[in-house]
Amino acid sequence: MSVPRVLLCFCLLVLACTVVGQDEDPEGTLDPLAPRQEGNRLSQMQSKLKELMTKTRNKWESFWSPEGFQGFVQTYYDDHLRGLGTRTRAWFRSSKDTLLDKAHSLCPQLLCGPKDLD
Length: 118
Known about the structure:
Elements: H1 3-23, H2 38-64, H3 66-81, H4 84-112
Protein name: Apolipoprotein C-IV
Organism: Echinops telfairi (Lesser hedgehog tenrec)
């Protein structure tokens, strides 16, 4: 199961528990023989679920709107990609220098033999 589905299931579970918890009488003054209003609970849960889904849909629509998505891409570029070429060239240079230093340190042992014989 993906993370958004798990999060949605968790939210629905919390919402259901909240709705059920609100309907219960904490003092126990309700008549235990009176029929429970299951239809009312169900309609309350459905209305809260509908409200939650509407809010979620509105948030996703605002994110995927041209302005919201463009703002996200611009922020991502500013945080992660600006100067990437410069940083990459510097990393290549330092990696090349490190690799050449290692190669030079190995060269006398492999090709020239031990340094003592010089």
